[in-house]
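Budget justification aside, the reviewers requested a transparent look at the raw inputs and outputs of the sequence design task funded under Objective 1. We therefore reproduce one unedited record. The lines immediately below are the structure tokens for a 558-residue chain.
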């Protein structure tokens, strides 16, 4: 018996990237682009829906279907509308519009001038199936990184997803296979996954705070696998937020070993005269090769609602801002009885809170911390923490001000660890290798303005920003105390097609210093998407050091 009626019919309309043809100047171009792009298949859209014909009508499943469609990288816009019949049943119409799914991003590096040192080419929607494939090439001294990845969000026509990755790096290969069934929006009741990784890579330690780059490479071999699952329970409805609790178990295995470190660029090392000294310092570091089998308990609670806004962190796209709170706890037990190299408990806590403070002022905060309790040595080690606090002010059509604070740190580390103050995780006006250390704080203020659209081809935006921050050595290898530093700059945003949720960001920034010169200019190019602080990594630079089981489990079981 369906008290609210049933879903009588479901109609799907999938629109091309540039919409229907018209008689404008660009009509021939739009027609050609639509012809080159294969529209998303109706079956792909239908499988993303949380309801079908004959099901009982539930408003939450309607709104969640719309939100999940918007989260798909190959969908630019989605609307799900329900019209009630005289008998109480509903006709549901689903309308989507595709993103331009081919993305090409060159990798820029600075030296005597900006040069292209690599490129990534990604197709997000192969033949309209929703499958994604990426090819990557990065030029490096000795041997370039080259590889690719494949992701299928509807494996064998189901809600399971599958991914493969293979990259040939300088030291060897990185190979990964993933199969997962994540919680489906706010209505999913179970999740499961398995993940396998084999990786040979460098951990790059930067030495000193000079504008010249000196990097010490530590070879790492990592073999890891994990399998797990979780269940959800639903609390009684109260207010707008959907309140959920989850609990699950994972079993993880990891083998981590290190080789002998060496300078990446022997010519630079000779100029610095630091080669032997740096390698000796790394040899004295208490790095621990390990082989662990661990049983992990995963517990989470969440109460979330989503508010739709246009142009919150994009130029003109509709976004879903998470309002409410979540908390996720992981407790893992590794014991020599399981075959582990040491006895420890892993504890990790991940928190999120989002609120509409007033009008169109949104305040979002995310924090996580993790640590191992070593029972043989009776101490805590490998302690990592990160915090991000983002405030958004939507001041009117096409203008948003963002004030953001970030903090990251590590203590008592027995795994490779180092942060830097420059680069995409720190100050935009400093190169990524500047000011290495163990604790970083950054504040950034940005004013983004929508300039206008060129037909249906693209949206243009301009951003002006200033940032300031500091690095503390904090016992990190080669760490320095930077003192207070700042930078400022301008950026050009290009979202194509018009209304896209993803934009190319080309920006230039300079240090705020009386000694700054034009050759200190830092130029970068990247793709930006919607802000999803409730699920995104707080500090991607920390992922090099965090326990691999935590981000893997979070991605599938949150």
């Amino acid at each position: 018996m369906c008290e609210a009626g049933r879903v009588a019919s479901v109609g799907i309309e999938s629109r091309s990237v540039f919409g229907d043809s018209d008689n404008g100047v660009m009509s021939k171009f739009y027609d050609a682009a639509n012809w080159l792009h294969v529209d998303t298949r109706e079956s792909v859209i239908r499988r993303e829906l949380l309801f079908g014909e004959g099901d009982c009508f539930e408003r939450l499943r309607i709104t969640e279907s719309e939100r999940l469609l918007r989260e798909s990288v190959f969908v630019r816009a989605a609307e799900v509308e329900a019209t009630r019949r005289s008998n109480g049943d509903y006709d549901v119409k689903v309308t989507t519009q595709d993103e331009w799914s081919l993305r090409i991003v060159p990798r820029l590096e600075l030296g005597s001038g900006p040069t292209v040192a690599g490129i990534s080419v990604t197709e997000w929607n192969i033949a309209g199936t929703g499958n994604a494939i990426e090819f990557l090439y990065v030029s490096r001294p000795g041997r370039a990184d080259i590889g690719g990845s494949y992701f299928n969000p509807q494996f064998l026509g189901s809600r399971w997803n599958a991914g493969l990755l293979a990259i040939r790096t300088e030291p060897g290969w990185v190979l990964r296979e993933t199969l997962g069934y994540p919680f489906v929006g706010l209505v999913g009741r179970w999740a499961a996954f398995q993940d396998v990784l084999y990786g040979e890579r460098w951990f790059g330690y930067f030495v000193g705070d000079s504008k010249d780059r000196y990097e010490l490479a530590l070879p790492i071999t990592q073999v890891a696998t994990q399998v797990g699952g979780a269940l959800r329970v639903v609390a009684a409805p109260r207010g707008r937020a959907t309140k959920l609790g989850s609990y699950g178990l994972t079993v993880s295995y990891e083998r981590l070993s290190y080789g002998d470190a060496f300078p990446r660029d022997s010519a630079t090392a000779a100029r610095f005269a630091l080669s032997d000294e740096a390698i000796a310092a790394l040899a004295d570091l208490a790095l621990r090769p390990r082989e662990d089998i661990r049983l992990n308990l995963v517990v989470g609670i969440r109460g979330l609602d989503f508010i739709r806004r246009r142009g919150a962190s994009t130029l003109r796209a509709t976004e879903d801002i998470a309002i409410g709170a979540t908390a996720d706890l992981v407790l893992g037990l590794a014991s020599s009885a399981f075959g582990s190299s040491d006895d420890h408990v892993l504890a990790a806590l991940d928190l999120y809170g989002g609120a509409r403070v007033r009008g169109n002022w949104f305040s979002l905060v995310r924090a996580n911390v993790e640590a191992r309790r070593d029972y043989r040595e009776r101490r805590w080690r490998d302690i990592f923490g990160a915090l991000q606090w983002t405030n958004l002010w939507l001041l009117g059509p096409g203008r948003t001000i963002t004030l953001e604070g970030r903090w990251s740190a590590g203590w008592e580390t027995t795994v490779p660890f180092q942060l830097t103050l420059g680069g995409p995780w720190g100050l935009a006006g400093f190169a990524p290798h500047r000011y290495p250390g163990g604790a970083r704080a950054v504040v950034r203020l940005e004013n983004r303005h929508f300039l206008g659209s060129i037909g249906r081809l693209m949206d243009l935006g301009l951003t002006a920003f200033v940032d300031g921050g500091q690095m503390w050595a904090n016992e990190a290898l080669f760490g320095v105390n930077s003192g207070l530093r700042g930078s400022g700059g301008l950026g050009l945003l290009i979202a194509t097609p018009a209304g896209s949720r993803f934009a190319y960001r080309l920006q230039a920034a300079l240090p705020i210093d009386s000694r700054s010169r034009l050759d200190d200019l830092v130029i970068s190019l990247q793709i930006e998407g919607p802000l999803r602080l409730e699920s995104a990594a707080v500090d991607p630079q920390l992922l090099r050091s965090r326990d691999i089981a935590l981000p893997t489990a979070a991605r599938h079981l949150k």
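Helices lie at 27-36, 42-48, 59-71, 266-272, 275-284, 549-557. The longest helix spans residues 59-71. Computational costs for records of this kind are itemized in the attached budget.
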